[in-house]
Design a protein that fits this description.
Oligomer: single chain
Number of helices: 11
Helix content: over 70%
Strand content: under 5%
Structural class: mainly alpha
Order of helices and strands: HHHHHHHHHHH
Distance between the termini: 128 Å
Length: 356
């Protein structure tokens, strides 16, 4: 391989062949060097070609791998888009279903609220009817107890009302039930068991009025006062016994005593009859007042009867003393009697009827 030198000759001279004298003959060493260089260049070229071929194969493999990866990525991207679209559609369907479910839940809640309101309305109506029934029954039983003086019907009505409230199982009626129980316990504790005994004593007192001796009654022939009776000795002669009998009869004609209330002595016999009838009327009034639970009236009538008994009848007589004893017992019985009251129950009924 020879190097070309620049030639300043014109193109025609340059293209002309050199004379044979000017062309040098190649030397063997140079030829050998040239061949070596040519072989080296050839080897390098072949090596470079082989390297290029290997690199090309590698690049081709990398391109195929990249193509496959790109295809896979494209497929995955397409699948991901498909899944995303499906997920979006699913989310949209879910949102639609959720909105529909929320609408249905709202409708169900509204229906439930309306149903609860209806049930509460029905419950309130039932409770109001129950309260009205209990109030009417309790007031009727209270009037009956005040008229007859017997608390048994009122206690039975309160017990029935308590059972009805317990069956209703309504918390808002709890105060009413407790009030009924308190009134029932108080009535049982304060029930006057002597009403029947008081009526019996009044009847006995009325029967004894006709047998009460007035202060202006004349003494009978059978006089038993020791100061007026003088008994003769057992062995007295007939004339002495006759004198004693005459003396006893003479003493019976005149009776000496102290008069504390002269108007009782001056009472005429026909007025004594009206006095007894008046006492009977007073006792009847006391009896009626006791039955109607009018305690003040009973006390007033018994006080009037006591005053008439002490004023117009003989206090030393046994029947008068028995009548006075009956009056004292009656006054003691009436003193503890009080009218039946169920204020707590009536107040609780008014509160329940008002809906509070």
């Amino acid at each position: 391989m020879t190097a070309s030198l620049p030639d300043d000759r014109p193109p025609e001279a340059a293209s002309a062949p050199l004379p044979a004298v000017l062309q040098p003959s190649p030397a063997p060493a140079a030829l050998l060097l040239t061949r070596i260089l040519f072989g080296a260049v050839t080897a390098i070229a072949v090596t470079a070609l082989l390297a290029v071929l290997v690199l090309w194969q590698k690049v081709s493999g990398m391109q195929e791998a990249l193509a496959r990866q790109s295809a896979d990525a494209l497929a995955q991207s397409t699948e991901a888009r498909t899944l995303a679209r499906q997920a979006h559609e699913t989310v949209r369907d879910t949102a639609a279903r959720l909105a529909l479910n929320e609408t249905r839940v709202a409708e169900v809640a509204l229906q439930r609220a309306q149903l609860e309101e209806l049930m509460q309305s029905l419950s309130r109506s039932r409770d109001e009817n129950l309260v009205v029934d209990i109030e009417s029954a309790v007031r009727l039983a209270l009037q009956q107890a005040q008229v007859t003086g017997s608390v048994e019907p009122l206690l039975a009505t309160l017990k029935s009302a308590d059972q009805r409230i317990a069956r209703a199982a309504q918390p808002r009626l709890g105060p009413l039930q407790r009030a009924i129980q308190r009134d029932a316990d108080r009535i049982r504790a304060s029930a006057n068991a002597d009403d029947g005994e008081a009526l019996r004593k009044l009847d006995e007192l009325m029967r004894s009025v006709d047998e009460l001796p007035p202060l202006n009654a004349l003494p009978g022939r059978g006089i038993t006062d020791p100061w007026m009776v003088r008994a003769p000795p057992p062995d007295a002669p007939w004339w002495q016994r006759l004198a004693v009998a005459v003396g006893n009869e003479a003493r019976a004609l005149v009776r000496v005593g102290r008069i504390e209330r002269p108007e009782a002595v001056l009472l005429a016999p026909d007025q004594t009859f009206f006095l007894r009838e008046n006492l009977k009327l007073k006792i009847l009034n006391a009896r009626l007042a006791l039955l109607s639970r009018q305690v003040d009236t009973v006390r007033a009538e018994l006080a009037t009867v006591t005053a008439a008994l002490n004023r117009y009848f003989d206090p030393a007589a046994r029947r008068t003393q028995q009548a006075a004893t009956l009056l004292q017992q009656l006054q003691a019985m009436v003193k503890t009697a009080e009218p039946v009251r169920i204020d707590d129950t009536l107040a609780a009924l008014a509160t329940a009827a008002a809906g509070r």
